[in-house]
Amino acid sequence: MPERTLPFIRDQYLAFEFDLRVNTEGRTKLVLTSEVRERAPFTIHKSKTPHHKPNSRSLWTMLLLQLRQLQPISGLCQSPSTARIQGRGRVRSEALQTQTLSSRTQRIMEGISISSEVGGAGGAYSYNALRRLDQLWSSICSAPAAPQEQWNVVSCIPGLFSHSDMSERAVDTFDIIVCGGTLGIFIATALSIKGLRVGIVERNLLKGREQEWNISRKELLELVEAGILVEDEIEQITAAKFNPNRCGFEGKGEVWVEDILNLGISPFKLIEIMKKRFTSLGGVILEGYSVSNISIYEDSAVMQLTEGKILSSRLIIDAMGNFSPVVKQIRSGRKPDGVCLVVGSCARGFKENSTSDVIFSSSSVKKVGNSQVHYFWEAFPAGSGPTDRTTYMFTYVDPQPGCPKLEELLEDYWDLMPAYQVINCILPCSLQLCFQVMGVLLDDLEILRVIFGIFPTYCDSPLPASFDRILQFGDASGIQSPVSFGGFGSLTRHLGRLSTGIYEAFNGNFLDSYSLSLLNPYMPNLSASWLFQRAMSAKQQADVSPDFINELLYVNFHCMQRLGDPILRPFLQDVIQFGPLVKTLGLVMLSKPQIIPSIFKQVGVSVLLDWFGHFVMLGYYTFLSLLIDPVIRPWLNTLPDKRKYEWKRHLDAWKYGSGLDYKQ
Ligand SMILES: Cc1cc2nc3c(=O)[nH]c(=O)nc-3n(C[C@H](O)[C@H](O)[C@H](O)COP(=O)(O)OP(=O)(O)OC[C@H]3O[C@@H](n4cnc5c(N)ncnc54)[C@H](O)[C@@H]3O)c2cc1C
């Protein structure tokens, strides 16, 4: 029997005999005919009976790849009632094949013709862009944890701009300037609809990326409610729809839902629509201009572009993303508290391509470079063709020297992705389909684009305004979930609140940093989700089982499923609420109390104590929003304008900070 090294089970040993039986209805059944001997990281449930039905997805994958790779298969007999493949397999560890790590990624990426790259997150697909992001990532990892001396983009200048020499050099004046156009165009359009004169400065072409955003229809309707999209346009921008949607946990089980993150939206089409709407409302877009520095005067914010142009406005909205130079200055270049690294591809050639994975957790941690990583997956059909599918692999890490580079993760991705997709498709298939699915090997896929990104997170998010007349928005504000990083999803949720608040701040001239900070207030539900990211980051700890993260997630999801849709659905859409959290934690403690000590070991006592504070605040905000808000609201109109503005923001913070904005 030939021995082969399968890439995803290096350093493991497995021997087995099996029958793969297919009945007349086309149902497949895998039957192990001998004892499985293994010392692999997968959970393989051994049966005492010879007719063992494995429930490990890993085993399925291995066997199917083995079927594909071992030639000849020892027998295939057809009868009217069953088709049967018999086999005997052995997989033994061998050293990693000698291949330079970058070559495969580079070869794949350089073999793809790239039609257009855009400035927003996940909008660059070239190998050079990957190298640049890896360099940035390395510099983040090696930066000291303490704040650093920074080049200042923003400076505060006493006096009035209208009295300064600079005022004559300003080429245009706006009510509000939005820097960065990806999510920036949405707030710019919402404010233009309210009658303000808004300009957008975007250093690239203002264009949405080809790679789709996935989102639920319910979230998109928030854009309709905010008045910037009409319902008919939802069809126009929807590139793909897929149901059902799975949350899977390797070797443990899965939870299936419907209509969660089940639409693939074309950012390209959506942003085209926004651009037309924005310009028809009198909005001005300056494409190909980069923000160089900003001076804050008592009456204006003045922006100098690298091309020498000077623009003035009363308020600047910083929507320059996670790597905004203004945010860097505010955070004094401080290292992020956690980072999510994501790599992936959109590829053609998936025959079974109707469902999606919201999350699929692998069963154990793995060493890449000097770091431990736990891989998670997300996959969904793409709109470019019926067999096109997007597959992301992501992991949460503490930024430090030795962390894996994106290119290293991509090398792992090419090894692991076909196996993950086989797992994804195999269960309901017939023998014919089974062979087709076994055909999901990398060589059989046409890689349409390679996708990658870095999501830095700070536990003290969202970011309050640090300067008068400048407010962060979108990823720059840190308002997106530290677990899902669905920045577009987060925008849909907060756009109505923010556009109203910014408009009122502008009209009332409440543009000092305190008043603007009320628009990005403390939100206990966002801070509480920080713990989830910590729990999902692999640690180098001998006393925590390598299966812990997978187990913890499975237990939580399973409990949420038992508690029903009102508990599970908001969570899957990044909304943490007090009641559902209490119920879930209660059920986890009752059904799996033995997991609690490992949680302490995994995240540490200080993170847990900190989290407990946010948990209490979540309860408090829920109380305030449910019981105190109705008492205060009728009095708002009797208050002076400034107090009224402040109280409205407090009420918003209670509601959104406790997740009570979520409608089932
Ligand atoms: C691989 C990947 C997949 C994702 N999938 C999803 C998803 O399915 N659903 C979802 O909701 N979210 C998703 N996201 C997140 C989403 O893409 C981001 O949240 C969103 O792009 C954030 O938009 P932003 O405008 O805040 O920041 P960015 O997208 O980073 O855009 C910042 C903009 O500012 C411009 N800019 C930067 N500096 C300057 C300057 N000095 N002067 C002028 N302009 C400047 C840039 O050119 C860019 O256009 C994904 C992200 C990645 C990386």
Q: How much is the radius of gyration in Å?
A: 27 Å
Question: Which outline best applies?
Answer: globular
Name the assembly state: single chain
Helix content: 25-40%
Structural class category: alpha+beta
Name the ligand types: flavin-adenine dinucleotide
> What's the story with the biggest beta sheet?
8 strands, mixed
Strand content: 15-25%
**Straight-line N-to-C gap:** 57 Å
User: Number of helix segments?
Assistant: 19
What is the fold's blueprint, element by element?
Blueprint: E1 14-23, E2 28-32, E3 37-38, H1 57-69, E4 75-78, E5 82-91, H2 101-110, H3 127-142, E6 154-156, E7 172-179, H4 184-193, E8 198-202, E9 213-215, H5 217-225, H6 231-237, E10 238-241, E11 245-249, E12 253-257, E13 263-265, H7 267-280, E14 284-287, E15 291-296, E16 301-305, E17 310-318, H8 325-330, E18 338-348, E19 356-368, E20 371-381, E21 388-397, H9 406-426, H10 431-438, E22 446-457, E23 470-472, H11 487-508, H12 513-517, H13 524-535, H14 548-563, H15 565-572, H16 578-591, H17 596-603, H18 605-632, H19 641-657
Parallel strand pairs: 6-15, 7-8, 7-17, 8-14, 11-19, 17-23
Antiparallel strand pairs: 1-2, 1-3, 1-5, 4-5, 9-13, 10-13, 11-12, 15-16, 16-17, 18-21, 18-22, 19-20, 20-21
Helix pairs in contact: 1-9, 2-9, 4-7, 4-11, 5-11, 11-19, 13-18, 14-15, 14-16, 18-19
